[in-house]
């Protein structure tokens, strides 16, 4: 990964929006040149500098209150919709003079600017969920004022963003992780008021159609939400299809030489971006992903223009590039099952989509000099991460995207998750501890090993079948062939291959895959794995997979906890996700989520199969990640003992299967997936 950092002074707006390089340095940038007025001088002379012109949604009305964002915002979007599009220079390199805003740092506002939005003055802009800590002495159950709030919990006026920007310069500002970090304030009052301003991230996708942009977006949305950052995708194609007259646009709609449809497409894109900003405003969004081709510098310039006045928003461009013709062809065929072509003639649809791509290719400008001159952050993902180029990546949230994009792949494989077999403590209803398995628990482990062996062979046959079909397709096979491989999911014995398999080494590696078995370092988990052949499986114990630590409640039953620590019992029932057990090592679900982050990323990185033999909390959190569960559901998923879950990542989503174990017949039966 190549990355380069360049420093640049931030900019200040004059009344006619002419930008001048201002001496003001934002927290992370170089000091201003000596000749320019310093920040304090500027503050002193603030009367002579016009405040930045803010989008109407941030402006106070005559009554001094901040107008309703949505109505204001609607006005501004109407204005922008009807406004003449920003002047696009005729030269190939767009005119960037109006763009040198410091997207990477907050646009400082004046203390006494008449345009200072009341909200910005009256309270912390983006309050983060307070760390709900139930230390021994007191526990404050998570309640509404602890939850992320866009508006301050108090009406008193905290320091304005400018002072905060100054203090961030002195103190600096680093990652804020829900449930893991909590900023320290000397003045206890300030905690409610000037809650540290947390960045909001707009991810802007770039790439030709069928380059996996939406696929990447869906994975990032799932990953950020699992980490408890409110993340949502805004797809321009979906926005287009919501308009009755654009549900099935053919390739001509995407012809860049057609000024009418080109303007329509630009308006649809900007309205989708406005919807993203509304979501920031009204639903306390933290990471908004703008999913479109954004395939020209002029479009990207318009996007940056649209965002440059929004406080505390940073941008990250993610471009997906693919020159693997076989993969592109496969992607295009996938599109035929999508909303634009569903139930239409495949051959005709394929030709139309190929024409659409050709039209985009005419004007496609990959990320590069234009973005680098503006110091914009970007990641180029080339051929599904075979090569990744990152430029000027800063900020915790952007770094999370890079980390994730370095570690995902498309290889078909299975991810199995189960709890350990029944333990002695399970029979006693005691939580935590480090008990061994009961005889039933051992029987489960033994039968689990045989079941997984059978499913491993079955998947291998399925892969071979699919590969054969794919190669037929690539070599003129009949696309209409629909007889998908229909495995017998309840088959207990490995299926003998029907014909001898002659594979070249590369194909063999894709089909005959290694298989990892991961356990925690607790006896009940490791004993369950004891029946797997370590010649055939890569068996590994991981402390990260240990069950949640219940601190002083360890080895108690829930009834004993309710009787001994009634407040704790009630507090946990109120908010299992944030609640942290008191006592040495006590954990919350959020603590375990962050403990499992490296495990999840490793599972995403792997191209082969894995079985995780965990615990109830571990199983819930891993399944919640792949299901994309809502925050409030994670800690309540129903994951009984002796149940195995199979997760199969797919090009357009994820397949889930559930198998229940019957100790009488010693078999596993597939049941409708339900957690
Ligand atoms: N980084 C990538 N490069 C190329 N293809 C990818 C990538 N990631 C996912 N895919 C494939 O792209 C297909 C989905 O394409 P999609 O996300 O709809 O493309 P786009 O949104 O760019 O039009 C899936 O079949 C998936 O396997
Ligand atoms: O979050 P809850 O629902 O309490 O479940 C966690 C509990 O589940 C248990 C059930 O006993 O896990 P485990 O799967 O290891 O048996 C306890 O060890 C653990 O404290």
Automatic annotation (TrEMBL):
Gene Ontology MF: a single term: ATP binding
Entry-linked InterPro entries: 6Pfruct_kin, 6Phosfructo_kin, His_Pase_superF_clade-1, His_PPase_superfam, P-loop_NTPase, PG/BPGM_mutase_AS
Keywords: ATP-binding, Kinase, Nucleotide-binding, Transferase
SUPFAM superfamilies in the cross-refs: P-loop containing nucleoside triphosphate hydrolases, Phosphoglycerate mutase-like
UniProt KW Kinase keyword: yes
Region (Disordered), start-end ranges: 1-115
Residue stretches of biased makeup (Polar residues): 1-10, 58-83
Biased composition (Low complexity): 19-41, 84-106
Domain 6-phosphofructo-2-kinase, first and last residues per copy: 198-412
Reactions accelerated catalytically: beta-D-fructose 6-phosphate + ATP = beta-D-fructose 2,6-bisphosphate + ADP + H(+)
Biological processes, Gene Ontology terms: fructose 2,6-bisphosphate metabolic process; fructose metabolic process
EC number(s) given by UniProt: 2.7.1.105
Superkingdom of origin: Eukaryota
Function summary: Synthesis of fructose 2,6-bisphosphate.
Annotated protein name in UniProt: 6-phosphofructo-2-kinase
Source species of the chain: Schizosaccharomyces octosporus (strain yFS286) (Fission yeast)
Native organism taxonomy: Eukaryota, Fungi, Dikarya, Ascomycota, Taphrinomycotina
